[in-house]
Amino acid sequence: MKTVVDLLLGFLAVNGVLAIAAASAVFASWHVAIAVSVLLALGLVAVSIVTRRFSLSWAALIAFAGGLIVSLELDDYAALRRSEVVRVASPAQATGEGRSFVFLRSVVRSDLQAEFKYETSRRGSQSGTIAWFYAAPLTDESWNSGEPVPAWAICRYKPCLADWAKGCGAAVPLPALHVDEYRQVVAVAEVEHGLQSVPGAPMLACVESPEAALAAQFEATRFALVFWNVTWLCGWLGFGIYRLVRPRPAPPPAPGRTVS
Question: What's the number of CA atoms in the CB half-sphere (13 Å) around residue 157?
């Protein structure tokens, strides 16, 4: 019976934290959602210690990690959902923050692209997390490098460079988490190629369409919810199996009897 109760409590704890973190991301911001996830996870650890239900500590760890990822994914989804879709002739008319654009004509100048390597702090000889960011001018066919850049195409993964060669029929706002890195890669491109940007030039992600980007972000959010539930369940089952198969110490001898 205790096992069933622990399973139910863990399920409610993980999904409760994920639900509250998701609501915080949608109605407030991902900063608030992460803070809420930390507080709730610490609360679960305290409850697990007081009640001696240590399976809740595992649930707290998963709830914190899941709350972090789900908060970021949902914040991106909410931003895309709020984004106004504007149809313009070229990226030169792509003005306004938080907007998505559909271009009549556009080109990504990959010949003027730049990359920026982001790395967290090192400890001893070990490197931290490494991520690459790429930027290239987002313009139309008539633009030349002597003119200010009207907009920037930004991406995080090298395979997206091949997508740039196909053009950029639509673009959406970038996730807010790495805004400093976006600015740095744009600065690198400006220095390397002697470019200047239009004041307030938007930094955008090229997509097939704003609707497709929204659908993909929804799937990413749903996957995150399922993944962390499955991770918690697998860990809980693994610990349960270990408890069943681990060697158990021999019972102490009965009082008044000796073991030869």
Answer: 4
128 contact partners, CB below 8 Å, separation of at least 6: 119, 120, 121, 122
* N-to-C CA span, the chain: 38
Q: Which residues of 97-122 are buried (b: 16+ CB within 10 A; e: fewer)?
A: eebbbebeebbbbeebbbebebeeee
Euclidean distance between CA atoms 175 and 197, whole angstroms: 21
Domain ranges of the chain: 2-80+215-245, 85-208
Rounded to an integer, what distance in angstroms lies between the CA atom of residue 62 and that of residue 235? 10
Name 145's Cβ contacts closer than 8 Å, sequence gap at least 6: 109, 112, 137, 193, 194, 195
Q: What is the pLDDT along the chain (260 residues), one digit of tens a residue?
A: 566 676 677 778 788 888 888 888 777 777 888 888 888 888 888 888 888 877 777 778 888 888 888 888 888 888 888 889 999 999 999 888 888 999 999 999 999 999 998 876 555 555 556 788 999 999 998 999 899 999 999 998 888 888 888 888 999 999 888 889 999 999 999 999 999 999 989 999 999 999 999 999 889 888 888 888 888 778 777 766 766 776 766 666 666 555 55
Tell me the Cα Rg of the chain.
Answer: 25
242, two tokens: 């270990």
